[in-house]
Amino acid sequence: MKKRLLSAILLAGALLSACGSDSDVASTNANNNEDAKKVVIGTGSQFINICFYDEDGNLTGYDIELLKEIDQRLPQYEFDFEVMDFSNLLLSLETKKIDVIAHNMAKNPEREEKFLFNSQPYNAVPTHVVVNEKNTDIQSIDDLNGKTVGLAPTSNAALFVEDYVAKNNMDTKLTYITSTPDILNQLKTDRIQAIFQFPFSVEIFNRESDAQLKLVGEPLIFSEIFFMLNKQDEQLAADIDEVLVELIDDGTVKELSEKWLGADFSVEL
């Protein structure tokens, strides 16, 4: 029961990519070069399989393990991880308290105006329509006409669905929910009929919270995921890109994707 409680608490951050409020710093200890430039990676601790603490208290997940691999191949840098609340990441980058954000970050115009994204995406996560496992009425996004759907505010999925509903003149009620337990409960009790999620998140919710979810239809979008840096850090971004290409080509990204995300999404890169 303790394990389930811990998992449920961690899952609460997954829909919103929201991290814990405690700040913590950990070095990868990947390089022993005393002249290496320190790079502080801002990340979170409650996005299961992306950036989270395992049962032994180790910071791990797809983003974390990928960055450790990158650090190993860039001896001129030393990566340190600083864990903080998701809401503090952008401000910390802007004020140069951290150098990189790693938290499953996708591009949007506001972010691109203020910050630098590296060029090579390191993930391309598919978003699906997700319904209760007993629901047989909804097979795709076009079946959401006349239904109520739950959205995480400002998420890429929300932006996509808002646009799709408007362009197709759909009579779909959009309700915005900030709590993961709440949105799962509303779906289970049919107060909403659909949400939008990643396949690996659905698997975790079903396993750890008995969420009774299923994916329907084809992927709506593949959100390309990048690291975020300050505008002046073009050299760091270029160095990261060079290694990312190597890691994609040699199968490391494929291996990490299969381990943490349940499928090889490197083919989308």
UniProtKB/TrEMBL annotation:
Q: Which domain of life is it from?
A: Bacteria
What are the record keywords, sorted? Signal
The signal peptide, as residue positions, is: 1-20
* Record-linked PROSITE patterns: PROKAR_LIPOPROTEIN
Q: Name one Pfam family in it.
A: SBP_bac_3
Q: Which residues form the Solute-binding protein family 3/N-terminal domain?
A: 38-264
The UniProt entry, under InterPro entries, shows: Solute-binding_3/MltF_N
Q: What PANTHER family does this protein map onto?
A: L-CYSTINE-BINDING PROTEIN TCYJ, MEMBRANE-BOUND LYTIC MUREIN TRANSGLYCOSYLASE F
**Could you tell me what this protein is called?**
Transporter substrate-binding domain-containing protein
Q: Which organism is it from?
A: Solibacillus merdavium
